[in-house]
Each structure stands twice: as C-alpha cells, then as structure tokens.
Amino acid sequence: MLTDPEESRIIANARQKNVADPNRSREHFLRIFEDFLHEVDFRDKVLLDLGPGQYDFAELSRKRGAITHGIDNDPWVVKLGEYKKLPARLGNLKKLKASDYDVQFDGVFCKYSINAFWFYPVEQALVNYIREIVRLIKPGGWAWIAPWNGVPTKAKISREGVDRVLSVQAMAFKGAGFSAVDLTESLSRYYGVHGRTGNRALFFLNLPRPDRLKNCRDL
User: What is the pLDDT of residue 2?
Assistant: First the structure.
C-alpha cells in the first residue's frame, strides 16, 4: 500500500489496473519472503526485479540491505522508481538481454511479468529468452519467477499447442537447474499470482522448497 500522496499520484497513471491501485496490499510479497527468501543474505547484494510494479519487492529487499534494479515497459512505473530512489530502466521485457547489463545479479525476481506465449509459435525464441534470464544470474545466485502465462485469445492456440508452449518453458527452466511446480489454485492466490492462465507455474533456483508446496505438481 502506498501512503505517500506523490507516489499515489504517479502510479495512478500506470497502464495495468492492479498496479495503478495505491491501496494494493503487500501481503503477498511478505508471504513470498517468509516461505522462500528467509534464508537469503540480502546484505550488499545486487538484485534485478523484472516488472517492479509498486516496488514492494525492491523496498523489502532494500530494508534487508540489498541494492535492487528494475526493468518495466511502463514509464509511470519507472517514474515511481525514480521518486522512490529505486533505480529502474524503461525497457521491453519481451526483448530482455543479459548484455544490456554490465553485471550479473545475485538474485532475479519476477512476479507475473513475463509470459511464455509472447514467443508463440517460435519455440526456440522462448528457449533463448529463458537463457537470457539465466545469464543475468550470477553463479550460485538465486531466482524466483512466477510467469503470467495468459493465453492470447486472438492466436486461437489449440489445447495441445498451449500444453506444448508450457512444456517448453518448464523444460528450459529445469534444464538450467530450476525447480518447477504448478501451484494449486489456493497457493496461487496465497502468493498473489492467480488469474486466467494456461497454468500456475512457479520456477525457483537455489531457494528452499517450502512444505507449503507439498501438494503441488512438479512440471
């Protein structure tokens, strides 16, 4: 929740309705920190947030001693970061390149800001995209990535096609050492990553698997 009037004024212009809501709760982020990031040493670590929104992850990380960078398609999100003194660049998340950064990151976080179907029907483009994400991570670094895998209705993709795209995404992440699970409906709501999507995928690297996920199906 944003309490600074200027922050509320800035984010009210955001393109996405949920991001533009200054009363949005931070509870989902606190749950993610509690379940996955409680053992992470944030002190002096450099992190990247793909789609920082209202900078909930960035602020929680900064309180723990980290330096967090962001990238977003929305200029008003970037403007909010400037006001909060949380650096973020304006950029097309679909064209994310590790070479755009002169460092690798100790951690990469993404809550509902990337989509496997951006690259349909070119499977190799999806694989290459995930490789770019992996290249952003320092050896031994961590990642927590929950894609918004909304299926584009205009593409008229068959169920078999949807399953194939999601399978390619999962295989690419698992091939890079990630754990891959399909969250239950209740857990997707618990972590704030629920919606009309092809699946409820969560990919995480060098982070513990909480007991809460014991009933989740591995992808």
Answer: 86
What is the maximum alpha-carbon separation in the chain? 48
pLDDT value at residue 153? 84
pLDDT-derived band at 108, boundaries 50, 70, 90: very high
DSSP 190-219: HTT--SS-S--EEEEESS---GGGTTSEE-
Domain residue spans of the chain: 5-218
Cα separation, 127 vs 11, whole angstroms: 33
Is pTM beyond 0.85? Reply is yes
Instruction: Name the DSSP class of 150.
Output: P
Architecture of domain 5-218: 3-Layer(aba) Sandwich (3.40)
Task: List the alpha helices (DSSP H) in 12-152.
Answer: 17-20, 27-36, 56-63, 75-84, 123-135
